[in-house]
Design goal:
By secondary structure, chain A is an alpha/beta fold. Chain A has 10 helices and 10 strands. Chain A is globular. The two termini of chain A are 14 Å apart. By secondary structure, chain B is mainly α. The chains are: A alpha/beta, B mainly alpha.
């Protein structure tokens, strides 16, 4: 089995003692939606920033779409797009201008850049607002534009860091629809979320990150079954309960091996 | 080259679509010009033989002051950019990261050359009579361009060091008030003894004196134009080199929250 993302023993500390990531292992299959679930401060964003080459890990390795994170960061950058918690679009430009600008930066010729921008505006349902400044967009529209920008180069893998945080239910549903649409085109999605419902409804595989470690991984159904919870909420609460030690529970296997059993 | 062109287009658009900042950077120089020539000019010229003499003294200084202030606003532009997520996106793309800063610098240069042209026009209208030859005009424009570049990089560095747009504003004000402590408005020798050496030796003074020398035929400090020009070029080159290197370093090592 080849994985689109394979992470081995990533460790990251900030300012000496605080270990944000304490040996993270992950394997993400191609063409799937993989949710990294965890409470605030669990290290989700740090992990995504490391995998997107924005931060260097203290230890550990990762292979992203066949490129080694340490020896080929440029290859990683060509294979991914990152959508952060803060919409990474230019407020002062229009939606179309943002898309054309990013397409030009990705080396598309001027004409091709304009065509790709038009395609994406239509695919992400932003045609009506295409020539309005992003400043006037709603939260859901900004995230959709953000995702559209990420799809310009048709990367095989996209990282979505808390794609629906701060959105109203309508905006959230729009983003979910768009994310599901991405996998139909064979794109692999690695998203982080603190919302159990989002992981449950959207993801093929869920990994729970808690205190810098992956403490459970599997399909939403496997996680529910393995932990006797009717919902992911119960599983999550059980897993992150103070005093809970991963591995003490009968039938639990840490790491992604657990998912394939 | 595409990276750079795209970034310049982006920053020029941002400048044009921020009408408040854009008009401030054009209006403020004009207001300062009118203030110094018509409000303070009378008192300043009391000892002079003609009323246009102060205009002739102060306009080269005002041109440099306005260029410095305009370039200083780059600090706010860069700090605003750094506090939004877009810089992280740029950094995760296969592009030359310095082009992001270079876009701001190029937009600042375009904005401030325009403002400088306007200030020169208003200066001529209020009674400034430069005696420069076309070659001297070219030299003056070359120096003001170098000065705007150096100050823009300096401001970009300030913008990166500042935590956010508000803090970056203070960088703009430092650059705006430094000229008051130079020979821009009054000769350094008329100042209190403590300030004299500061005013005579700070970077703005040789730049302003070179402008005076080129436009008016002589400097106000007695030194030759060549001497002041050499100092001005050294100052600009040093500020440019140090600020550009520091700003590029800070840009690589600092991202949005």
């Amino acid at each position: 089995m080849t994985y689109t993302v394979k992470v081995d023993g990533i460790v990251k500390s900030f300012g000496g003692s605080r270990r944000v990531l304490d040996g993270v292992d992950l394997a993400v299959e191609g063409g799937a939606i993989f949710a990294l679930l965890g409470p605030n401060g669990a290290g989700k964003t740090t992990l995504v920033r490391i995998l997107a080459t924005l931060l260097k890990p203290d230890a550990g390795t990762a292979t992203i779409a066949g490129h080694d994170l340490r020896t080929d960061p440029a290859g990683v950058r060509r294979s991914i797009s990152l959508t952060g918690q803060y919409a990474a679009v230019d407020d002062v430009l229009t939606g179309r201008e943002n898309l054309v600008m990013m397409a030009r930066l990705l080396r598309l010729p001027a004409k091709a850049a304009r065509e790709r921008a038009a395609e994406l505006l239509s695919a992400f349902d932003l045609e009506d607002a295409a020539d309005k400044r992003v400043k006037t967009y709603s939260g859901g529209m900004r995230r959709r534009l953000d995702l559209a920008v990420g799809m310009i180069a048709r990367p095989p893998l996209i990282f979505l860091d808390e794609p629906t945080t701060g959105l109203d239910p309508r905006g959230r549903n729009q983003v979910w629809d768009v994310v599901r649409g991405l996998t139909r085109d064979g794109v692999t999605v690695l998203l982080t979320t603190q919302y159990l419902e989002e992981a449950d409804r959207l993801a093929d595989t869920v990994a729970v990150l808690h205190q810098g470690r992956i403490i459970a991984q599997g399909t939403p159904a496997q996680l529910k079954a393995g932990h006797g919870g009717a919902s992911l909420d119960e599983v999550f609460l059980a897993l992150t309960e103070p005093g809970y030690e991963p591995g003490y529970e009968p039938g639990y296997q840490p790491g992604y091996e657990g998912a394939s059993r | 080259m595409t990276d750079l062109t795209v970034m310049i287009t982006r920053c020029v658009r941002r400048s044009l679509r921020d009408p408040e900042a854009f008009f401030t950077s054009l209006l403020l120089p004009v207001i300062l010009m009118l203030l110094f020539v018509y409000v303070f000019g009378g008192a300043m010229s009391a000892t002079a033989t003609s009323t246009s003499e102060y205009a002739n003294y102060v306009v080269p200084g005002l041109i440099v002051l306005c260029a410095g202030f305009g370039a200083g606003t780059t600090a706010v532009a860069v700090a605003t950019d750094m506090s939004s997520g877009i810089v992280d996106r740029f950094r995760s793309m296969p592009i030359r990261s310095w082009s992001v800063l270079a876009g701001h610098i190029a937009a600042s240069l375009a904005r401030n050359l325009l403002a400088t042209a306007l200030v020169i026009g208003v200066g001529l209208a209020v009674g400034w009579h430069p005696s420069a030859s076309p070659a001297h005009w070219l030299a003056a424009i070359a120096l003001i361009t170098a000065f705007i570049l150096a100050m823009s990089w300096f401001a970009a560095m300030g913008g990166l060091l500042a935590g956010g747009p508000e803090a970056a504003n203070s960088v703009t004000f430092v650059i705006m008030f430094l000229p008051y402590l130079s020979s821009a408005f009054v000769p350094a020798r008329t100042m209190t003894p403590v300030l004299r050496p500061i005013a005579a030796n700070q970077p703005f003074t040789p730049v302003i004196e070179t402008m005076r020398g080129l436009w008016m035929g002589r400097t106000s400090v007695g030194a030759s134009v060549g001497h002041e020009a050499l100092l001005a070029v050294i100052y600009c080159a040093a500020i440019l080199a140090i600020s550009a290197a520091a700003a590029s370093y800070l840009f690589r090592h600092r991202t949005a929250a």
